[in-house]
Amino acid sequence: MKTDSIFYRLFQEFPSILFELIEQPPETANLYQFSSIEVKQTAFRIDGVFLPIQNEENPIYFVEVQFQPDSDIYSRIISEVFLYLRQNPFKNTWRGVVIYPNRNTDTGETKDCHEFFTSQRITRIYLNELGETASLPIGIATIKLIVENEDTAIATARELIERTKQTNNLPLQRKRLLELIETILVYKFPTMTRKEIETMFGLSDLKQTRVYQEGKDEGREEATTSNYAYR
To answer: Which of 41, 130, 190, 221 has the least CB density, counted as fewest CB within 10 Å?
Structure first.
C-alpha cells in the first residue's frame, strides 16, 4: 500500500490525529470534513483537505504527505492552494501542513516563500522527531510506526497493539485502528508469511482482514523502491 494511501485512510477514519500533530485539541476534528481534492483543469491533486463544516472563523487545512525529496514542493503547494481557493472562494483563512518522514527528505526551496513559514501559515512535521512512541497518543504513535526502523518496529508494534487493545475507544474504532496497524505491518514486512506476522505480533485471523492481501502485494512492490524513505 502506498504511503499516501495509508495517510488518506488514517485521516479519513481518524481525523483527530491531524490536529494532535499540530498540537490542537483532537476534538477540533469534529468541526471539519476531510477529503482529497483535485484542482479543476490542472494535474494538481492535494493529498488532503480539512474543510470547516460551518464556522467561518476556523481555517481550512491543506495537508501534503511527502516521502520523496522534491525541491519544488513549496512552490507547488502554494500554487495548488491559491488556485483551489480561486476556484472555490471561502471566507475562511487557510493553513498548510506538510508531513515528512525526516528532515533529510525536506529538500524544498523556501527562499521565495519563507514568509509562509515565519508566519506559521505552513507547518512542517518530521515523523521521526515526534518523540518516544510510548509517550505519544496512540494515533500519533501509529503514524510514527510508518517510519520506525525495522530493528525496532517489531517491539514498537507489539507495544502499540497492546495499548490499542486496552484503550477505552468504542469497539469499532479499536477494530479500525488495529486494522490500520496491520496494514502498516504488512507494508513494512512484505516478505513475511501470514503465520509469521500473526505469531510475531499476536494477531489472529489476519488473512481474513481486507488489509492483508492488498498490503502484502503493494508492500512487496514498493519495498524495492521506497525503503530509503523509512530510514
So the answer is: 41
